[in-house]
């Protein structure tokens, strides 16, 4: 059965430019592929061209359009240069994914100040600055836009062994709701995508066999998520299909948050 034309147009991102900060990582990289597949020109943002190349090749092989721009998520000056580069090369920015992140598994009483500052500087400050730089552009442009911030299940439900990460993500959830309220009349939507347990670069160090068993016991679907399973929600939040969705937390966790005993 062919997909009805109105559904194709509703989720289409043709003519849009999506900036994916953290797009060289596993989860945001998959989101970038999905955005490109829906017709957006995608800008992968990270520190390493080498890490971006494989993702760029996959996007281009599938008929999509993407390019890489180096930037440090925790630097306002670099994010402003990123925006300037995107507008100069692609002409516009319509969708912004703030997904750069780091984690640690340090016991609470052993967390050093520099570790705390490093995690907060990327996970929270990076989102704050990304929203400030790109949000200003989107609001002043007057054509609306979509900002998707990467939250975490640990930002909703406290999880053991990831104290600073949890605090940083909880702040991201709060910031996103505040900005959704501030920018709603400018048609700039701000939402939080909330992955449950998806094995990725930043959390493999905490996925011990004991912890994996505990996670599976609390996840009704009895498995980890796959990065590609974030694409559907990403397209909903990025496209006209989600035009009345702002300030929301879209949870993708295999039922983890619904499980008690």
Automatic annotation (TrEMBL):
GO terms for molecular function: oxidoreductase activity, acting on the CH-OH group of donors, NAD or NADP as acceptor. PROSITE patterns: ADH_SHORT. The keyword Oxidoreductase applies. Pfam families: adh_short_C2. Signal peptide: none annotated. The keyword Acetylation does not apply. It comes from the Bacteria. Keywords: Oxidoreductase. Residues 16-156 form the Ketoreductase domain. InterPro entries: KR_dom, NAD(P)-bd_dom_sf, Sc_DH/Rdtase_CS, SDR_fam. Belongs to the short-chain dehydrogenases/reductases (SDR) family. This is Gluconate 5-dehydrogenase. It comes from Termitidicoccus mucosus.
């Amino acid at each position: 059965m062919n997909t009805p034309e109105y559904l194709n147009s509703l989720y289409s991102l043709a003519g849009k430019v999506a900036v994916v900060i953290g797009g060289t990582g596993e989860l945001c990289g998959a989101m970038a592929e999905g955005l490109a597949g829906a017709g957006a020109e995608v800008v992968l943002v990270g520190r390493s061209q080498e890490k971006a190349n494989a993702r760029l090749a996959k996007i281009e092989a599938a008929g999509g359009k993407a390019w890489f721009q180096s930037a440090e998520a925790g630097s306002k000056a670099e994010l402003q240069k990123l925006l300037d580069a995107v507008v100069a090369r692609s002409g516009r920015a319509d969708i912004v994914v703030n997904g750069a992140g780091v984690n640690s598994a340090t016991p609470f009483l052993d967390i050093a100040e520099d570790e705390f500052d490093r995690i907060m500087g990327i996970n929270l400050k990076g989102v704050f600055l990304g929203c400030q730089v790109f949000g200003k552009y989107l609001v002043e442009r007057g054509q609306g836009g979509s900002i998707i911030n990467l939250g975490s299940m640990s930002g909703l439900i406290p999880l053991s062994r990831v104290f600073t990460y949890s605090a940083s993500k909880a702040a991201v959830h709060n910031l996103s709701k505040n900005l959704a309220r501030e920018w709603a009349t400018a048609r700039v939507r701000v939402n939080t995508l909330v992955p449950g347990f998806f094995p990725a670069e930043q959390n493999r160090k905490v996925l011990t066999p004991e912890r994996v068993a505990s996670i599976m016991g609390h996840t009704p679907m009895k498995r980890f998520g796959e990065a590609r399973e974030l694409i559907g929600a990403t397209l909903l939040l990025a496209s006209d299909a989600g035009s009345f969705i702002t300030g929301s937390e879209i949870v993708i966790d295999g039922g983890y948050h619904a499980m008690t005993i």
